[in-house]
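dumping this here so i dont lose it
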């Protein structure tokens, strides 16, 4: 079993974003894991995450960390397990699954819309971090670039100064 690695990660990547990091691999990985845990099941307005394509829409994100051919929901126990591994030896890369659930509100009723499913691979190399995004399926109300920006901004909020700085994207 290899925590953090998804053996079937797709080769066909929809987005690659590169960041310079002013923190160590260990600190970035701890912040990443804690950030994704905190974002789990939190409700946001669509415009907080992306350029809104649907009015009065809320989103709920769910993250899981890879373990071989599956993903484990990033609850407090799983987060603590990952943090313990990072403390001993940081990962070279970390794979995550992200489900983005959409709900349209009309007349005080919340109706579910089709969800987006993403896979994210974070690669750590010295003072650089690369994020590979694969959009598995869904309407893409949040684009690959928008999910990268949202996560990077949330990680940066964990530090007193901006730690991840984008320097190239494709």
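and the seq i came up w/
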């Amino acid at each position: 079993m290899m925590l953090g690695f998804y053996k079937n990660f797709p080769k066909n990547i929809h987005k690659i974003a590169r960041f310079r990091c002013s923190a160590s691999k260990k600190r970035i990985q701890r912040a990443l894991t804690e950030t994704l845990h905190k974002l789990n099941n939190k409700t946001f307005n669509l415009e907080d995450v992306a350029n809104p394509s649907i009015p009065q829409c809320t989103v709920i994100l769910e993250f899981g960390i890879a373990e071989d051919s599956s993903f484990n929901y990033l609850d407090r126990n799983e987060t603590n397990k990952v943090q313990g591994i990072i403390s001993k030896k940081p990962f070279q890369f970390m794979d995550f699954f992200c489900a983005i659930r959409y709900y349209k509100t009309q007349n005080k009723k919340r109706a579910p819309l089709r969800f987006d499913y993403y896979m994210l691979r974070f690669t750590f190399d010295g003072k650089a971090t690369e994020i590979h995004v694969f959009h598995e399926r869904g309407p893409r109300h949040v684009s690959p670039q928008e999910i990268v920006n949202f996560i990077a901004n949330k990680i940066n909020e964990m530090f007193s100064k901006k730690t991840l700085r984008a320097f190239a994207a494709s």
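The first strand starts at residue 15 and ends at 21.
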